[in-house]
Amino acid sequence: MRTRKNRTLRRKNKRGTYKKYGEKPGKKWVTAIEAAQKTLRKTRSFEAAKQSLRRQALTNARKLFGSIGTI
Fold it and tell me: Phi and psi for 28 in degrees, rounded to 5?
């Protein structure tokens, strides 16, 4: 009986290991400003950063509201 109890405890601990290290399952949400800052650091170009900001903002809007066609 004792081994069965220990096995269930081990299984529970394995499921919650990501909480211990601060990791979260799934993809992180990327804000448009973060994307623009990352592009600016890489390319040193304001135009590329501006384009990246707009592209990420559109992607985030699609995630929230779905793909909407223009009339």
Answer: -85, 150
Query: What is the 8-class DSSP label of residue 27?
Result: P
What's the CA gap between 51 and 47, in Å, rounded?
Answer: 6
CA distance 50 to 47: 5
DSSP state letter for 35: H
Contact 61, 55 (CB under 8 A): no
pLDDT tens digit sequence for 30-47 = 899 999 999 999 999 999
- pLDDT per residue over 18-30, tens digit each? 566 666 667 778 8
**pTM over the 0.85 mark:** no
From residue 43, alpha-carbon distances to 8, 32, 33, 40, 54 in Å are: 51, 16, 15, 5, 16
DSSP 8-state secondary structure symbol assigned to residue 26: S
